[in-house]
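To the team - iron/sulfur cluster complex, inputs and output below.
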Amino acid sequence: MTKANMNKIKVGVSSCLLGDKVRFDGGHKQNQYVMNTLSNYFEFLRFCPEVASGLSIPREPIRLVLKNAEIKCVGTKNEDFDVTDKLKNIADEQKFWQSQISGYILKKDSPSCGMERVKVYNGSMPERNGVGIYAQKLMDNFPNLPIEEEGRLNDLVLRENFIQRVFVYARWQLLTTTAFSLNDIQQFHAQHKYIYMSHDQIMLKKLGALLAKPCECLSSLAASYISQAMVLLKSRATKSNHANTLHHIQGYLKKHISQDDKQELCETIEQYNQGYLPLIVPITLLRHHFRKYPNEYISNSFYLCPHPSELMLLNSV
Ligand code: SF4
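Output:
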């Protein structure tokens, strides 16, 4: 996927977040950011595992309980109403369309869809340490898939992180759905190197070393590469890592811009590092200089435009 070829990306979503009245009480949990903003960039594939596994609307609410050292999903009134296997099976039955998506937005707190901190009952006092049954299977089946809960998308850093991962993963899927070579993976790596650097410089080195080794099996190398890359991207990009990355990129301009311009860039990066400016400011300044003095490596890199500007994700990190 080139910068000029950004079709809507397929993303799975808990259907109640899109306003579908599928909840146990016949209601929904429509999320405005998902509905009104992300829908401009993502093609949502909605799915309600409870309804798909045959539960009615409305229905008896369910919850996670610890039974004989195992987590079960059962009715709140009738613990014999056990839907654990139904929810696991329905997750396995969705693998075909799930293999084509580049991300998934789940409903928080749900015993089916919750990604973390779901209440688990053991006696009367619940502990918030569970994972929804469907969500767990989804994560087991697709460990590289970017997955986030709608509640965590209110955190602007987590939001930017998730959307960035979706775009990177979509580009990887596009690359690997047709025949690809080691050179293609190396090119993908070069295009994302500065994004990786802003997250974790040690893991970036490991990824580089992986690609430098003699390649015996391209598909195993590709599998290792993307699983390590997606783990790397999950770690939060820090201001100091971004500042370091911005300085690296600034280095490509050293023969072209004046001492005053260099000084201005350094000061802007430092102000960003200190928290006085958002990331979009040094990035805009760099884009301006690279428009005047284009560099092929930087224009092929996604760091200066990791996702559509209209999402304004770099304005708040
Ligand atoms: S949280 Fe998941 S299971 Fe519950 S209503 Fe929403 S989509 Fe259905």
